[in-house]
């Protein structure tokens, strides 16, 4: 226990605590988590409408997403410290309530600046919500049912980002963009009241840890700069921009100081020593890499459907939505029966299935139909259903009960950062590979060749310029398709490589039962 712990604090047994109504408590926790994860994507499709109504530019509108992501990334690693200081129940209730306030401010924003500020607040208070929900769910279920609790959160993690763009587009088209934030108000109030009342009297051991100001400042600067450069890199042409270069240097220096300080400080604000646990290290590595690849799929497929196949945003959503069907149907069974199997085998099957779907997309062409796309998405859902729960249980399996909140926050932070890297790098790689293949496809085409001129004129119905424009569009689409296929071939390999990390972990993978499942050290 930390030297700064409250004097006389003693471990409080938690294994026997159960809320009066465990189903209602689970519903409240799940709704809060769904609401928080949903808000990562729900505003994406509404940005043009929001910027138009508030008089902002397209670049300013992107900060509606960036501000949330940056502040969320900063808050996630602080979960452990906040839990030790306030306790899991109180932290959950206040974070959820403040999320409601921030959502209300988002909907009432009268300018782009007000909206960005409110989104930053929303992202920050959302940071602890997912890991705290995970820790609370694990603590209120008996050990043999904790897999089901983790599986429920895994389902939320998959379904909410898929539902976000579809729900956001529907609300914006049929009502107004403000309601994508206002819908959080009743949900958040319900969740905070239910969980607060149901977990009243839950024993928790609190501490009064010193504020690690060096760790906090370097974390805010380092993670803030890193997340910002990842979000803005593509728009600013990466390292050809002085802004990106400066952000890179600042981030590298701040994060280096942060890591060294946190590993040597007696009372760090982020406990990096959690990586001493074998299963936590291996499971987190598997989660980060696999989630980055999974996130890349979620980014590229909708973009490809709209840019290259001409799908509308809503139909792109319908084409990608089948990925959520099997997780919803299978997750309860995975949670119930997974403990009967070696979780490493379940994760291996998941990654093989996700690899197969990536290789299938690597064979797509511009003539692929809706049904084929949707079926591949559906089959990937099988892999997703077996992915999150086993890997989450593996990475939490060798943590002590009092380390779960901090470990979950740290792993979620790493996963979020992996998704940010994936979003930036895959879209950049797709653009670059498309440009390379465009150059290769056009290098033998000459507008001075009589045969080429004749073919272009015929293509344009007697209009050479029209024919040339049509040819340019065809070549651009084909070049982008080849780049798309290459990236998915690489993603297929990545999913297979992740299997190696899973097998570094060693059983048993059951949750530990011990004193003080609260956030204290």
Describe this structure in words.
There is one protein chain. Residues 1-15 and 513-521 have low confidence and may be disordered. Helix 11 (213-232) runs parallel beside helix 19. This protein has helices at residues 22-38, 47-54, 58-75, 79-86, 88-108, 112-126, 129-140, 146-174, 179-182, 184-198, 213-232, 242-264, 278-307, 313-320, 325-337, 343-361, 370-385, 388-396, 404-442, 450-459, 464-502. The chain folds into three domains: 21-203, Growth Hormone, Chain: A (Up-down Bundle); 212-268; 274-521, MFS general substrate transporter like domains (Growth Hormone, Chain: A, Up-down Bundle), CATH 1.20.1250.20. The protein is mainly alpha-helical.
Mean pLDDT: 82
N-to-C series of helices and strands: HHHHHHHHHHHHHHHHHHHHH
Number of helical stretches of at least 4 residues? 21
In CATH, the homologous superfamily of the largest domain goes by the name: MFS general substrate transporter like domains
CATH class of the largest domain: Mainly Alpha
Keywords for this structure?
521 residues, Growth Hormone, Chain: A, disordered C terminus, 21 helices, mainly alpha, 3 domains, globular
Offer a concise description of the structure.
This protein has helices spanning 22-38, 47-54, 58-75, 79-86, 88-108, 112-126, 129-140, 146-174, 179-182, 184-198, 213-232, 242-264, 278-307, 313-320, 325-337, 343-361, 370-385, 388-396, 404-442, 450-459, 464-502.
């Amino acid at each position: 226990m930390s030297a700064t712990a409250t004097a006389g604090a003693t471990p409080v047994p938690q294994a026997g605590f159960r809320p009066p109504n465990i189903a209602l408590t689970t519903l409240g926790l799940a709704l809060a988590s769904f609401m928080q994860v949903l808000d990562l994507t729900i505003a994406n499709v509404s940005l043009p409408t929001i910027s138009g109504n508030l008089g902002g530019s397209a670049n300013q509108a992107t900060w509606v997403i960036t501000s949330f992501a940056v502040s969320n990334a900063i808050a996630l690693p602080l979960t452990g410290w906040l839990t030790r200081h306030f306790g899991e129940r109180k932290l959950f209730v206040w974070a959820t309530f403040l999320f409601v306030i921030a959502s209300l401010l988002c909907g009432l924003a009268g300018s782009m600046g007000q909206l960005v500020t409110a989104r930053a607040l929303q992202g920050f208070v959302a940071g602890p919500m997912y890991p705290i929900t995970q820790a609370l769910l694990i603590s209120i279920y008996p050990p043999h049912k904790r897999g089901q609790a983790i599986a429920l959160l895994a389902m939320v993690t998959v379904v909410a980002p898929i539902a976000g763009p579809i729900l956001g587009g529907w609300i914006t088209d049929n009502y107004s963009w403000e309601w994508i934030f206002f819908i959080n108000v009743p949900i958040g109030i319900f969740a905070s009241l239910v969980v607060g009342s149901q977990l009243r009297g839950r024993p928790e051991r609190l501490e009064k840890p010193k504020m690690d100001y060096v760790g906090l400042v370097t974390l805010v600067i380092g993670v803030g700069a890193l997340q910002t450069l990842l979000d803005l890199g593509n728009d600013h042409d990466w390292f050809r921009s002085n802004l990106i270069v400066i952000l890179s240097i600042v981030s590298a220096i701040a994060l280096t100081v942060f890591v060294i300080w946190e590993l040597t400080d007696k009372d760090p604000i982020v406990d990096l020593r959690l990586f001493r646990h074998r299963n936590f290290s291996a499971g987190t590595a598997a989660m980060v890499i696999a989630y980055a690849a999974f996130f890349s799929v979620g980014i590229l497929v909708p973009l490809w459907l709209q840019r290259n196949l001409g799908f509308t945003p809503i139909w792109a959503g319908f084409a990608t939505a089948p990925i959520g069907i099997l997780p919803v149907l299978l997750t309860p069974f995975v949670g119930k029966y997974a403990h009967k199997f070696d979780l490493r085998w379940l994760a291996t099957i998941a990654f093989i299935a996700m690899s197969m779907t990536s290789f299938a997309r690597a064979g797509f062409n511009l003539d692929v139909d809706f049904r084929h796309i949707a079926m591949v998405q559906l089959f990937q859902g099988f892999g997703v259903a077996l992915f999150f729960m086993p890997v989450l249980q593996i990475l939490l399996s060798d943590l002590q009960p009092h380390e779960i909140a901090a470990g979950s926050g740290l792993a979620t932070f790493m996963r979020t950062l992996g998704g940010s890297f994936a979003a930036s790098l895959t879209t950049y790689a797709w653009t670059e590979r498309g440009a390379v293949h465009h150059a290769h496809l056009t290098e033998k085409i000459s507008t001075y060749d009589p045969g080429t001129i004749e073919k272009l004129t015929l293509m344009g119905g007697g209009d050479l310029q029209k024919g040339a424009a049509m040819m340019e569009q065809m070549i651009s689409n084909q070049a982008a398709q080849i780049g798309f296929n290459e990236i998915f071939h690489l993603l297929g390999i990545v999913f297979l490589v992740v299997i190696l990390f899973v097998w570094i972990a060693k059983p048993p993978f059951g949750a530990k039962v011990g004193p003080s499942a609260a956030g204290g050290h």
